[in-house]
């Protein structure tokens, strides 16, 4: 997984498959390997390049279960999706689940804890997988302490600290920067969230200071403001995007004259 594996004119998309029952996007929820493969195949046909799989929701609406339950939801799904031969990320904040998923065929760690523990770094370093590092202002991915000052300054401070951690494990070169807008600010009214995300998205260039790829959880709701945010992101062409409806993103790319992925 590296930006050199895609053209410069399109975003490499990871389509969401949720093995947890309480995702905010009902279309993404699957039960078992058969449904997961069916959804993944559909998403790949619609223009996705890889799959992002989760077994524990990280929104305020999700019920937190033990890692054993989370892994039980994924145990049969991971190897089935790995058979598709495309990049497969596991979305988790638990090192026990991350380790088992990578051993079963996942190729990317989408770290829902923001890589704020040495245990997660140790797993990533052992397997030398790419790591999506999302911004989380606080240790709990479901109770994020939201930014009250300049969000871009907070992002930079956070990633400076996380990359210092990465350096201790020799993993900076494996990191992918995610501004964390898929998480937060979840307890704000939508208009405030919209303004917050717009500030972040219009300043993505400031997150290239570390010369690392960018990964954005792309908006998926069908409103004018969500489409505005989507266009702001797509025009800047981050290397990676997390999506629920890849065909919508590819249609927007074509509308903007940005093309589609080439075979590699």
List keywords for this structure.
264 residues; alpha/beta; TIM Barrel; eight-stranded parallel β-sheet; 9 helices; 8 strands; globular
| CATH class category name | Alpha Beta
**Helical coverage, percent range:** 25-40%
Structurally, the number of domains stands at: 1
Largest sheet: 8 strands, parallel
Q: Uncertain segments of ≥5 residues (pLDDT<50)?
A: 1-8
At CATH's second level, what is the architecture?
Alpha-Beta Barrel
Mean pLDDT over the full residue set: 88
Radius of gyration using CA atoms only: 17 Å
Q: What is the total tally of β strands? A: 8
Give the overall shape, derived from the CA principal axes.
globular
If strands are numbered along the chain, what order do they take across the biggest sheet?
Answer: 6-5-4-3-2-1-8-7
Tell me the name of the CATH homologous superfamily. Answer: Dihydropteroate synthase-like
Q: Please give the count of helices.
A: 9
Plain-language structure description:
By secondary structure, this protein is α/β, with parallel strands linked by helices. The protein has one domain (3-255): TIM Barrel, CATH 3.20.20. The chain contains nine helices and eight strands. The chain has an eight-stranded parallel sheet with strand order 6-5-4-3-2-1-8-7. Strand 3, helix 4 and strand 4 (108-111) form a beta-alpha-beta unit. The chain is globular and about 40 Å long.
